[in-house]
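Exercise: predict the fold of this chain.
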Amino acid sequence: MTEILSGQDLIDAGMPQGKWFGKALAAANAVLESGGSPGDALEAARTFAPPPALKLHAAHSMPLHLNIEAETPDEAANVEAVTRSMAELMRTPVIRAGAIMPDACPAGPSGTIPVGGVAVSEAIHPGMHSADISCSMAISVFPGVAPAALLDAVHAVTHFGPGGRPRGQQIRPAKEVFERFEANPLLRDLTSAAIEHFGTQGDGNHFAYVGTLKSSGETALVTHHGSRSPGARLYSKGMKIAEGVRKTLSPETLPQNAWIPADTREGDEYWDALQTIREWTKGNHMLIHDLTAEKLAAKLSDRFWNEHNFVFRRSDGLFYHGKGATPAFDNWADDATDLTLIPLNMAEPVLIVRGKNAAHGLGFSPHGAGRNFSRTQHRRMQAGRSDVDIFAEETKGIDARFFSGVTDISELPSAYKNAASMRRQIEHFGLAEIVDEVVPYGCIMAGDWEVNAPWRKKKEMRAQQRQQSES
């Protein structure tokens, strides 16, 4: 009778138990059935074993470049938190280098890439581009159009807040982009979301900003948003894939830093999906700009765009993750120009810059002004002042609007780092050259839409009903 190997035999041979045992035992017992020795069978089984777990890098063994200076005690605390978090991230086994931009601020538990962080890796880390894949900036110049008319026009055609456009107002993405959704296994179930959210800008710090070019006085529209629901759902799928890899290859790695290996089927599919989401997001910007031009029957003289929350593969084969960091190296994308956009806050100019590919910035520049405090902390610091008073003081001289009709004070200028400081540090660290500015006229943001959210209204109604029944 032919001997049969069991899972216990593999364990006794020093193999770590796992799901791979099924295939390993089938191969081992096939060797025995064909007349092979037990030793040959165990060797056949061993070929299915996962590789040894990768160890974390020793602390501070990977290069980390700090392009940030604290000018106040609050900023010092912020820099300390950001540096501590990046130092922990740098221990991830596939990470090769990191950098911190002047606008950096913590995001999540320590060890999470901060906003304003750059990480270079052998692999793709979904957690390092986050749910807002391809969060980006776009500018179109509208010669001869009055800023007030342009702001009114974009207000009429854009959509801020949760969800997508209502039925009857939905717009289908370009045919070639839609076909890429249908062809990718990670995206083909997101086609409905790709239609519903096309032509929307979301919430948070996303905006439609109108101003005039400092160099020429021409009116310009600048938009800021990411990939909405399609990107968020791809991110969730990517994190699930990466977590499976982490548990097998490096259980010591923090879950938020899990990775998808390059040049594997999963890696290729995810990389292709990222490029498709990028094209969808670019198209989303251009759609809003084109609808605005159509509303005004106006012509555009110039436009360009750049993402600042993405991952780029450079000629060295490594993946450069910019989490709230603007690419500043040449030819960062097929459609790259030599100019990129850095916003500061709604009352400050949007900077038009030329990147310097600084080695200590790993080829990136800042993406904005960043925060020293969380939204909750900032609101707490405004205690004793009404939202009306805060809004009036901080938006003096500009036409600031909130799409929901409710002011979100956590998006007003005081919520962000000092704009002058950001400009000084961009110059001091040689991260980019400021070549022009869009001087603010007005800005539209989502506002605090949750105040009137249906779930909140239902909760308030239930509370009122309970009070009435108890009285």
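Check your answer against the key: The mean pLDDT is 94.
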